[in-house]
Design goal:
Layout: E1 8-12, H1 16-28, E2 32-36, H2 39-49, E3 53-57, H3 65-75, E4 80-84, H4 89-97, E5 102-105, H5 110-124, E6 142-144, E7 147-150, E8 155-158, E9 161-163, H6 167-177, E10 184-185, H7 186-194, H8 203-216, E11 226-229, E12 233-236
Helix pairs in contact: 1-5, 2-3, 4-8, 6-7, 6-8
Length: about 260
């Protein structure tokens, strides 16, 4: 039986030197690579080549990367990794909210980018194990006061109204809510939700937590559900109304910084 064809990556980047470097590392890692130098060419290349993953620069001539990302998302759920020279959290939040699976800030390590490509493709591969597979079996519906999570339908409701979450935001919320009161480190969340080992950018988790709080919390600055554990990570908090039949939980001795948003 013939080997399956190598997976294909589309690079949309107007800097020829970056394109050559990323292409070199991806080819060495066994991927087929196609590229485009602007947004319109990137969309045309996406439709023509049907890549398995898109590596997309944000600052492109003509149509910028955010618009390209939005249009690809209208067509399919192909994984997208954004490349950006901007380090402001708001820029990262915007990229994630329009549907990007991950982002890498310039300058970046080509090896790290290849690792992230592998991780995203592994997570989204047909039939691949869910990043949540190691968590306990979940019911069809998880309810915490006004917050309801429907794992099988991948749906979230707040006060009976549906909330639009990205794939990563949903996986992150379900990971936290499936193990209430568990103190997740940022590295553990990266491993479970993004399916790659800690590569030095734990802000990926913080940014997603920030956008998630804005969507499910009444007051994101004083979150009820997703609490920050100072110097460690996050936990999904319960109160007596959320779990009326549960025994009293032991006092949490970890310091919490509930005011920190992400």
């Amino acid at each position: 039986m013939a080997d399956a064809p190598a997976q294909k990556a589309l690079i949309v980047e107007d800097d020829a030197d970056i394109t050559r470097l990323v292409r070199l590392y991806l080819v060495e890692a066994g991927y087929r690579v196609v590229s485009a130098a602007d947004g319109v060419g990137g969309l045309e290349g996406y439709v023509r080549e049907q890549p398995d993953i898109v590596i997309l620069d944000v600052m492109l001539p003509g149509m910028d990367g955010r618009e390209v990302c939005k249009r690809i998302r209208q067509l399919a759920q192909t994984p997208i990794i954004l490349l950006t020279a901007r380090r402001m959290e708001e820029d990262r939040v915007q990229g994630l909210e329009i549907g990007a699976d991950d982002y890498v800030t310039k300058p970046f390590s080509p090896r790290e980018l290849v690792s992230r490509v592998r991780a995203v493709l592994r997570r989204t591969a047909t039939g691949a194990a869910s990043p949540l597979a190691s968590l306990p079996e979940r019911p069809e519906r998880l309810t915490f006061g006004e917050l309801a999570i429907l794992p099988l339908a991948r749906r979230v409701e707040v006060g009976g109204r549906g909330v639009d979450l990205t794939a990563k935001e949903f996986d992150l919320l379900l990971t936290l809510a499936s193990a209430p009161q568990h103190a997740f480190s940022r590295e553990e969340l990266l491993s479970r939700v993004w399916v790659y080992e800690y590569l030095g950018d734990s802000r990926t988790v913080d940014v997603h937590v920030g956008t998630l709080r804005k969507k499910i919390e009444r007051d994101p600055a004083q979150p009820r559900f997703i609490r920050t554990i100072w110097g460690h990570g996050y936990t999904f908090d319960l109160d007596e109304t959320d779990a009326p039949d549960a025994p009293d939980a032991p006092d949490n001795e970890l310091r919490r910084d509930d005011e920190r948003d992400g």
